[in-house]
Amino acid sequence: MTTLINRQSGDRPPPPPAPTQSQSQSSQQQQKSHSNVIRKPSIDNVDSDGEDKLIDESNIEDLVKELPQSSDKTVQFLDNMLAVLPNRWRNYIVRSIFTLLMVFGFGLVIYWGPLALMILTLCIQVKCFQEIIAIGYSVYRVHGLPWFRSLSWYMLITSNYFFYAESLVEYFALVLKQPNIMQPLISYHRFISFTLYVIGFVWFVLSLVKRYYLRQFSLFAWTHVTLLIVVTQSYLIIQNMFEGLIWFIVPVSMIVINDSMAYLFGFFFGKTPLIKLSPKKTWEGFIGGVISTVFLGMIISYLLCSYQFFVCPIESYDPIERIFKCTPSKLFQLTEYCLPETLQLIFKIFGLPQTISLYPFVLHSLALSLFSSIIGPFGGFFASGFKRAFKIKDFGDVIPGHGGLVDRFDCQYLMASFVNVYIYSFVRAPNPTKILHLIYQLKPEDQMNIYQMLQEHLNITI
Amino acid sequence: MTTLINRQSGDRPPPPPAPTQSQSQSSQQQQKSHSNVIRKPSIDNVDSDGEDKLIDESNIEDLVKELPQSSDKTVQFLDNMLAVLPNRWRNYIVRSIFTLLMVFGFGLVIYWGPLALMILTLCIQVKCFQEIIAIGYSVYRVHGLPWFRSLSWYMLITSNYFFYAESLVEYFALVLKQPNIMQPLISYHRFISFTLYVIGFVWFVLSLVKRYYLRQFSLFAWTHVTLLIVVTQSYLIIQNMFEGLIWFIVPVSMIVINDSMAYLFGFFFGKTPLIKLSPKKTWEGFIGGVISTVFLGMIISYLLCSYQFFVCPIESYDPIERIFKCTPSKLFQLTEYCLPETLQLIFKIFGLPQTISLYPFVLHSLALSLFSSIIGPFGGFFASGFKRAFKIKDFGDVIPGHGGLVDRFDCQYLMASFVNVYIYSFVRAPNPTKILHLIYQLKPEDQMNIYQMLQEHLNITI
């Protein structure tokens, strides 16, 4: 994880450097110092169009100049190998290679099981938080302010404690069947989390320093919005995972497929610009993305449906043998569907069968693929707009050819919420195991009451 | 509800007005136009101390000048009556009168029952949202931007739909015992809410306009943070109310008592300044507030504990007769407590009883009063810092002598969360009625399974 280090200390910013004419030099310098953020020199807010600006967009470029940006230098050896190709192709190949590497790595983590996936999600989340927060630091230039860095990391830890501990506790209760290991932590989980948050809140109020109020409040809001985006999404991703790995793998793959296929279609057929925010995106790419995602999404869903490893919920995971064992729910059992009448007629003519055998999940995957390919890109447009607002090219430089992690995961933003809401609304019945846990927490007389009410409800005569 | 109307239309801000010398005139003008926000003229960001500012604190005063601020004009008739008194006393009396009026109004709403309280909470929430958002509009001067006002109100409606509908549905299910009235809305509640949010999100992305990106994103964040503060708090307040009105009335009263008593103690004995953020607050006021809140809080708790109207949960509310009927839980039954040994000895000497009869709730109220008087004020400091950051005196002018609604409810901010977490962690066992509702939603075979597991667990032999 990249940490941001001040080159200079003290409270006031350093004097202005030489004018930024020698861009080529500074880009090399940027290479070396991309883990440092230098506090920026002052440039007078002289306004070109006579409009006063509360947020001064004129010097943002200078403020964010030192943030790490993607570069081709880190893949020098690839560059040498691909030197013969034109620039456009070279970029495409570098990007493809690293896409494949990521897909392979992702596959490996899936193989290691749900705990590894949870850890991966956590790591990605922390890195995304760091990337977004680093922009805030640069933009509001609060590097000299006491406590601010610690405070936002503290908030990250607090909110992660709140969300992750809950998931972990659930994991241990359901998988290891030992809910009592962490009983005190479970019982007082919310109270502990809230206490941690209140400490952060009081800390923030006490750290307020005159002259910096506005920037401190802005960064406080920035931290909260970042947490809202990053931590809640990763919590939902893990919750989806618990319903069966398929609910995690299929949506993530769909976004990847849509990104890649839209890029591919745009690359080969792209002509009509789609939206001003992302000038490289085209209607051809968008539509190609939708169609590919729907088809490939259905194929992947169909393939995964037959493996218990992907369709069984977390309760049925055996962490020692690293396998899932369960009777798959109806969603994952082949079902005979009648075709619509018009199609039946056509199929009759050609002597084809008039019913089709499908996993019901494949039909659900249709909804997922439409969302991921139609609404998903708006997460990308949102990120593009954000980058334009702050005049940065990328959120970071960890993945060659791709930029920062946020650049890659921008479209996943709303997807996790969608899947979660979708499962909750259309798929999941309340979980009997969880309800039993709830009942066991009741007083014996209430348990007895429920037992009798249930007896009545089920018309059981003794 | 005050709506903000542009005096001028079009995309560019109007030319600069006359220099702001005649403050007395402009304050009168302010009176007349306090429901309007005028788009602010340009003032060049010439910097006095040579530091460049991304957020330019130098002209904030001009930007927010037209926001409604508290004034004594609205209580002219009172002013005339109190003209003989010195200014400090007059302020105090105006403030006290309106405090009493508010307390009386609040009592009336409590008398009308839980539905009226829910509506009151909703109204306060909407007004608080409007006050905070209005500052954002002025500060980022996006009055000319298409859609922005509609968008943030849309977001308010969406999040209220999400939170309030859930509470209302619960209310109808538990109180009117007719969960089926709203069945489709309940089943797809999350999906509908999420769809509404996604529409807002897409709308925001499509409304992005070059040159305004930074301000649009800032205001988007501003809206989200405001929603986080305002809507979630009011949701939690209602959830607390459902556990019994006492969980709502006692905490709210404690904050009011603490505010008033700290003010009173500070007014009479205040000498030592407490915190730079709020120069009027003193240690004497703070400590006086804590002691008064603990004592008065216990007294109020003790008094309320004996009324079913306050201690029964929402399930036991009869909306036609407007009464609560239940057997109060152990928390609200007089219990004999032994005094600590040292106290017992002292009491023995004086021939006093060595046990004390208390409602257990009174002991819980100790935790609530300590939180409300020690941490509660930090909500106020936070609001003070916020007002200082934006150089405004008050959030609004709806309550004479008090300012805006946010000024009055700033300390309630963390209290609702605390009470909710406290109930969840230390008081509430899972609700048997809710668990039964969950079981009835299961498939018959799962219901049967739970029945058998429960039979085993309870060691029932047939």
UniProtKB/TrEMBL annotation, chains A, B:
Residues 1-52 are annotated as: Disordered. It holds the Pfam family CTP_transf_1. PROSITE patterns: CDS. Pathway: Phospholipid metabolism; CDP-diacylglycerol biosynthesis; CDP-diacylglycerol from sn-glycerol 3-phosphate: step 3/3; Lipid metabolism. It is an enzyme of class 2 (transferase). GO terms for molecular function: phosphatidate cytidylyltransferase activity. Keywords: Lipid biosynthesis, Lipid metabolism, Membrane, Nucleotidyltransferase, Phospholipid biosynthesis, Phospholipid metabolism, Transferase, Transmembrane, Transmembrane helix. GO terms for cellular component: endoplasmic reticulum membrane. Its EC number is 2.7.7.41. Belongs to the CDS family. This is Phosphatidate cytidylyltransferase. The lineage of its organism: Eukaryota, Metazoa, Ecdysozoa, Arthropoda, Chelicerata. The gene is LOC113799179.
